[in-house]
Here is the input.
Amino acid sequence: MTAQPLTPGAPAVAGRDLDAGVYHLERSLSAAEVEAFGREIDALRHRHQADLGAEDAAYIRRVLKIRRWLEIGGRGLFFVGFLPPAWVAGVLALGAAKIIDNMEIGHNVMHGQYDWMRDPTLNSRTFEWDNVCPSAQWKYTHNVVHHTYTNVLRKDRDLGYAVIRVTDEQRWRPYYLGNPLYALVLGSMFEWGVALHALELDNTHAGRRTWEENRPLLRQTRRKAARQVLKDYILFPALTGPLFVSTALGNLAANGVRNVWAFAVIACGHFPDGSVVFRAEDVEGETRAAWYVRQIVSSSNISGGRLMHLMTGNLSLHVEHHLFPDLPARRYRMLSAELQEICARYGVPYKTGPMWRQVASVSKHLVRLALPPRRRHS
Here is the structure.
């Protein structure tokens, strides 16, 4: 990112509140203050990066074991799936394994958080996750596009996933009357939504991308989807013999548990009231320090304990993740207090709240944006 001087006394970022109006920091920051803020964030990062070692490696290996035993337990319970409690327990155990695989392991490994370990099973270039979307496609749409252009309209394709209206800056159409329904459908089939999202079918339909350009991506997605369907709905159900249908339905339910949870965590991280969107011109010539500020005001955290952090892949500490996406996620808890103190000194808002409150905020927000503006503000 190239440097561009900011007018002294101007806000560090020129974003807009997701509901309406121009967003302002708690106080104006001069260009010098923005850069000083950035230096403190850099120093925080460097201290933790220099401290990486055995404890971080031991943590992710423990998580790998937890995921493995949850999957073995969940799939094993389907062999006695004719007992309803066993079937439900199998769904929950397998769903938890898939959540941990996608969020604490897959998401973080593919950010390169554990490349320094030189462990081939944790290499960001070769890792493949339990998900319909091929990892290579996800790494581009998420790591490159989303993390570079976080909450920038028409650049960050995660902003509403080309399906949901999440800001007034998206012109209202009658289609958006179904906004809450679209969110529910997307959440229930989120892994498929992510795969379609990576294919950029909306851009192909609009003529901004050709079908010829999409053909290699379509082949990758078909192969990955076929493997997932074969594994969850044919091979593992076949192993349980007469319980084939019960096991297939259990796998479907486990995938649904993972999908809904992952979507809820991600929505709480970006779409609650008080989050901010930007126009392309707002981030032209953005310095790294100003990028830090944008990441903070674009993200929200979910408060909770160790179990919450594990089951969200530490995306409950979403602010920290957007600042330090390639630091091992277990580090976010360690640096959070100092980050909050830095933000408080510079007047940069740090947003957090319990899961129920963040989900309620997102739900209210999506319902409000489903209505025409004149009706919504009347």
In short: The mean pLDDT is 89. The longest strand covers residues 301-303.
